[in-house]
Amino acid sequence: MVSNLTGEVLSKYETDFIEKVVETVISKLDLRLVSTPAHLTGMETRVEDVNSWLKNEQYNAIAICGMGGIGKTTLAQCIYNSNKHNFESKSFVEKIGENYKHGLRRLQKHLLRDVLGNDKIQISNALEGTSKIEEVLQTKKVLIVLDDIDDEEELTTLLGTKAFHTQSKIIITTRLLDIDSWFVSKSLRCMVHKLKSLDVHESLELFSWHAFGSKFPMEGFGELAQQLVKYCGGNPLALKVLGSSLYVCNEDPRKKNTMIDIWRDRVNSLNSSKGDLDCKIQDVLRKSFDALQFENHKELFLDIACFFVGESKDMLTIWRDDLHVKYGIMTLISRCLLTISPYANELAMHQLLQDMGRKIVCEESKDPSKRSRVWHDEESYCVLRKGDGSNTIEGLALDMRKIKQGRRSEPLALKTSSLAKIEKLKLLQLKYVTLTGSYENFPELRWLCWHGCPLETMHPGLLKSSLVAIDMSYGHMETFEAPTVLNSLKILNLEGCDELVSIRKLRRLPNLETLILSSCSSLTHLSKYIGYLESLALLDLKGCTKLFKASSNKKYVKPMLKHLWIDRGNSEQPLFSLPCSLKFLHLNDCKIKCNNDVRVSFHVQTFFNMYLGCNIFEFLPSNINLKMLQTLNLYSCSLLKALTCIPSTLEELYIDKCCSLERVTFQSGRFRLQQFSYKDCSQLSEVQSLFKLVPVAKIDVADMVQHMQWIKEYENCEVDLVGDDITIGRDPQIQMLHEYGIMSTYLQGIKDHNTMTYEHKSPLQSLSFCVPSHHENKRIQGLHVSCLYRSSRSRDKDMWLLLAKIRNTTQGVTWIYNPMVYCKPRVDEDVVWLSYWPIGNILDVGDEVIVDIIVDKGAVARECRAILKYVDGEVENYQTNTMQGEEVIGGDLSQFEVTTKGYYLCRRNLFGSETSSWLKKLFDDNVDYPVGRMEKNSLVKDVNLYKRLEYSKLPVRFHILNIEDNSICICKIRLSYTSSVSKLLSVFLLERALIWHTKSMVAKVARRSLVGFESTREVLGLGGDYSA
Questions:
Q1: What pTM did the predictor assign?
Q2: Phi and psi for 642 in degrees, rounded to 5?
Q3: Mean pLDDT per 10-residue run, the chain (1028 residues)?
Q4: By CB neighbour count within 10 A (0-12 exposed, 13-18 middle, 19+ buried), where does 252 fall?
Q5: 196/49 Cα distance (integer angstroms)
C-alpha cells in the first residue's frame, strides 16, 4: 500500500507538511474510532454477548433494545470499534430518530460516504439514496450501525429491502422490542437483544467513578451511595448524571460533612414519590413517552406510573375500551416503558420511568388540585382536608399510615363530601382511611380500592353501577352482598378480610371475572350461584380453611352441570360447583387432607390451572381429574409421597419443597411438560421418562449390569454430586443415574481404578476401535465406557461441563450425552465416570466406534476405556421394554435429533445463543437446531457455560514463529479434534527451557501461559506422528 502512495514536496512550513502526512496515513489506514465514554463498567460481558452474534450465520442484523440511558449506543460503539477491521466497509450513523425528519438525505449521504469511501456523493432525493444504498450493500461486506431507530420507515430508507452480502452485519439500537417484525418483508433475519441493566456491583462502581473519581465510595458515603444506586436501577445514564451532580472532592475534607448533608437531602427528595428527576435524565427518558402516537396510550402510561405499578395486570380491565387498552399495553411494553412480571403477573416499571411519568403530571400545575392525578400522600390529604373539590383530578391515592408517621397528633378525619366534590374522579385508592358522612353522593368510580376499610358491610352508596374493580382487602367486613346488579364489575378482591363470614347473591355480579378471597379464614358460606358466573376466570380461596371444613353444609349444586364429583362412595354433595369458564383455582393452605375435603364439582369441559400448595395430603385427591389441568402447583406439600399417571395434557408441574415425594410417573412415555420445577425434593428418585437417581446401596446386585456389579463394594462411599437441583440435600452416597436408557455412576477418591478389565484403552480422553468378530451364539448388548477426570485448578467452581460423545462412523450415527448430574472434580484426586450404553442393536462387526470425553475448561480427562457387553442368543430389542414413545436409546429420540442420525441428549440450555454454532462443531454438520426446545426450570443453567467449553488434551499443532536464546515465541496453537472440532487459542509466550530430543521427542516446557494441560507430553501431542 505504501508503494502506491504519491510523493509530496516540502514547500511550506514543516509542521503543516507533517500534519498533512499524518492525516493522509491515518485516512489510508482507517484508524478512525467512534467515541466511547470513560469508565465502561460492565461493558466487557455485554460486548461478549453481542460478539457471539457476529459469528452466528443465521442472523444478519441485531437489534439492541432497552429503555433510554441503558447503554445501547455505548455498546454499539464498542462493538463497532472492536470489529470494524473485519469488514470491507463500515459506517456508524448516529441519532437517526432526532435527524430523520429534517436530515434524511444527509443520513443517507453519511452512510454512502462511509461505505464507498467517497466524499463527493450526491443524492437528489430519498428514493435515489435508498437505491444507491441497496446497490452497494449487495456487493460489499459491510458493518453498519444505525443508532436510535424509532420507525420502520427509517430502517427501509437507510437499508432498502433487497438482499445483502451474506457476510454483512447490521447493528440497530432502538427502544422498541418488536422491531424483528419489520424484517419479515426484508432479506434480513434480525436477532433481538434486550440489554440488561447493570447489576448492583457494576452500578456502584460506575456511580463511584463519577461521584468520587475512584472505583469505590469515599468513607462515610457508602450507605448513601447504595441508596442512590438502588434508585437508579442499573441505568448507566442515571448513575453518571446523579454521580456527577453530587461529586465529592477528595482534596477538601472540610466540605465532607456539608456534602453528606447534601447527599441526604438528595436521597430524601428522590424517595418522596413526587417525580423529582434530574432534567438530563428526564429529557432522555421522555423521548419514549413523546413518541407514543395515541393520546390514550400516554394517559394509560401516566395512570400506571401514578397508581398501578405492582398491581395485577388484570386491573387493566378498569379502562372502558378493553381492545384499545390491550393494544396500549403492547405498545408500552414494546417501547420498553412497561414490563409484566412473569410469575406474579403484575405491572412493573423502572423507577426512573415511573418518576418521569409522575414529573409530567406535576408539570401540569403547581396546585395539586388542578392536576389530573394526585398520588403523593401529603398532597392528597391536603386536597381532601380542604374539601374544595376539583374539576381536573381523575385519580387520587392516599395512605393514611404514612400521614400518621410524620405527625405528632392524630390527623383530622376526612369527609365523604370532599370526595363528592371531585367531579371527574374515576380512580380512588385509599389505605386505612376513615371517612365520615353520607355515601349517597359518592363519585361514580371505576376503581375503588379501600384497604383496611372499617365498614362491616358495603354501603349501597359505594357500589355504583360504574364500578369495574373493587378492592376491599384487609378490612373489617363480615358480609358482602351487592344491593343491586352491577353489570360492569369484573374484579372483586376481599383478601385478608379475616372477619368475613359470607358472600351472598353473586348472581348480581353476572360479569365477574376475578374473585379473590384468600386468607378469609372465617369464611363459611360462598354463594351457590358461583357456578352461574360464566365469565369467572380466577377464583382464589387460599387459606379459606373453614370453608372446606364446613362439612355439615348442604350446598346447592347446579343441576345442569355434568360435574366430575367422583368421591369413591362419598354421598355428600359438593360445597359448590365451578363454572366452565374458570382458568385459575387457588386452594393453597386450605388444610386439605383427603377427598372429603375437596368437595368441589369440576365441570367436564373445564381446562384450567390449579394451585394446591401447602396442603397435608399424602396422595393427590382422586376426585381432581388431572386431564382438566394445564398447570398443577403442589409447592410445599410436605407429606405428598407420589404422583402417578400424569396425563400428557398437563403443561406445567411445580413440586418444589415436596420433601417426601419419591416418584412421578406419566400416562405417556414421552416427557411433555413445558415447565417442571422440583427444588428441595430430597427424596425424589424417579421422574419417569426424564431420570432415575437411586443410591447404589438400594439396588440389588442382580439388577445391575454385570460389569458394574463390582461397585457395590463402594456403595457407602460418598460423592459430591452437582449439576441439578435434585442433588441439593441428597444423601451423599454413590448414586446410579438412568437417562435416555444410559446408566452411569461416579466414584470419587477411589485408588484402584483397574478393578474392571477393558478391551479398549487409551491414556487420553478419546479412543477408537473396530467391533471385533465374536462367537455366532453371542450378540452385542451394549457398550461400557469409563474415564477419569479431575480439576486442574485450585480455584473451586460450582458449575462444570461434562460430555460423552460416541460415534459409529461406519453407520453414521452420533450420540452426545450431557448427564444431568455429575461428580464435582477436585484437584488432588480422580473421579471415575462409569456408563453403560444399550446400543447393541446399532453395532455390527467391523463398525468403527470413536469415544470422546469432553470436559470443562479447568478440568482434564484421561484413561478412556471401553468394553462391549455380549449376551447369549438374540438381543432383546430395548424398545420392547420401554413405554411407547419413551425418549431412550432404542426408543423415540426424534426430539433430540439435531442432524441426520446425530442425537444431542441434553435438556438444558448450555450454550445460549451459540447453541447452533456449537452443535455444528460437535457434529461437524450444518445443524438446524430447534430454538423452541423445551427447557425445564430446574435444568436451565448458566447460558454462558459455552464460554468455558474446552477440548483439553487434544492433538496439538504448534505455529513456531521465532526461536531466540533458548526461548520460543508461539503466537497460535490450534487444537485439532479429528475432522470436526478446532478451536484457536492465543498464547503469548512459552518461556525458556525447551530441550529437544530428536529421537524420542521428549520436551520440557515452562507452562506458565498454558492453562488446562496436565503435562508437557499432552501439550506437544507426543505419542503419535508429530512435526514442528
A1: 0.77
A2: -155, 150
A3: 55 68 56 70 85 83 93 93 91 88 85 88 89 90 93 89 86 91 78 92 93 90 93 92 87 76 88 76 91 92 94 82 79 92 85 94 95 95 94 96 82 91 96 94 95 94 94 96 95 96 95 95 91 92 83 37 31 69 91 74 70 92 81 95 89 94 87 88 91 92 82 90 90 93 91 76 95 86 93 71 94 94 88 94 94 89 93 59 68 85 86 72 64 37 30 28 30 29 28 28 30 33 30
A4: exposed
A5: 11
